[in-house]
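Narrative of accomplishments. A recurring question from our advisory board has been how the design workflow behaves on a single, concrete structure rather than in aggregate. To address it, we present the structure tokens for one chain from the evaluation set, followed by the sequence designed for it. No filtering or post-editing was applied between the two.
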């Protein structure tokens, strides 16, 4: 049986928008360490042992000024190392801007399925021309990946602005009204892609289910819709997944943390199941 390693990269960068989300990335890392420790103590056969045998956790420090100055270069190094070694990569970012180095590493041959309440390509009067968590897609160095936006609730950007950045956009009302049709169209787009990356900005979920975000928006996806979309679009082309914008200071009774913990473990098991099925 082939062993496909899994690398979880903790990248708690959260400058230029939504400071505090870096603690969310660190808390999710603690959850992964707890998974490894609990599995090591267990004497009976359990499914998570298959994860523990493959999982490596790498943490990017942000303790000094020099760490922050070189954040983008450091991100490129970590992302390239994981992707070039044919590892499944889980990228735990602080704010969504912390995913930019991954996008700049993926290249044009990758299709990104981006779950996000916001379309992070804003060029409005209230935004700055400089890089921020709200316009970072406009600053992605070419050749960036192809991106499909899923579940957004944007009411400001024009169709021209959207088409300049995204291959396609499926707003929340389209998904809510016709999920079957959306999945059918996405499967056709996924089929032609060389490799896939799943990008999850947590605020794509309705805040009733995931309150631990700084910029909640109503009428979001529910967890079942998100899980179904990920599972039905999953294939061996998926090389990794990024997760961002979790703010534990805004969580309620650990609801968001529990949701993310279950989802991450399910994703890892999906990777393991692919290997076992070879």
């Amino acid at each position: 049986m082939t062993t496909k390693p899994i690398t979880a990269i903790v990248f708690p960068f959260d400058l230029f928008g939504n400071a505090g989300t870096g603690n969310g990335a660190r808390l999710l890392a603690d959850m992964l360490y707890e998974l490894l420790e609990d599995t090591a103590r267990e004497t009976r056969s359990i499914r998570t042992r298959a994860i523990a045998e493959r999982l490596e956790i790498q943490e990017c420090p942000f303790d000094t000024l020099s760490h922050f100055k070189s954040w983008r270069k450091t991100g490129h190094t970590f992302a390239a190392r994981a992707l070039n070694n044919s590892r499944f990569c889980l990228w735990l970012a602080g704010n969504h801007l912390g995913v930019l180095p991954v996008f700049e590493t993926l290249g044009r041959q990758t299709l990104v399925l981006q779950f996000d309440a916001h379309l992070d390509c804003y060029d409005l009067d209230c935004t700055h021309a400089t890089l921020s968590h709200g316009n970072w897609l406009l600053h992605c160095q070419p050749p960036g990946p192809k991106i499909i936006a899923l579940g957004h609730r944007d009411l400001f950007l024009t169709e021209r602005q959207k088409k300049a950045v995204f291959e396609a956009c499926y707003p929340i009302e389209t998904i809510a009204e016709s999920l079957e049709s959306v999945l059918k169209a996405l499967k056709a787009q996924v089929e032609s892609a060389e490799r896939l990356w799943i990008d999850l900005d947590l605020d794509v979920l309705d805040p009733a289910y995931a309150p631990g975000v700084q910029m909640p928006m109503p009428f979001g996806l529910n967890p079942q819709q998100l899980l179904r979309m990920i599972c039905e679009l999953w294939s061996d082309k998926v090389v990794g997944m990024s997760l961002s914008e979790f703010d534990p200071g805004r969580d309620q009774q650990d609801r968001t943390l529990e949701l993310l913990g279950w989802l991450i473990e399910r994703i890892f098991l999906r990777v393991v199941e692919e290997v076992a099925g070879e």
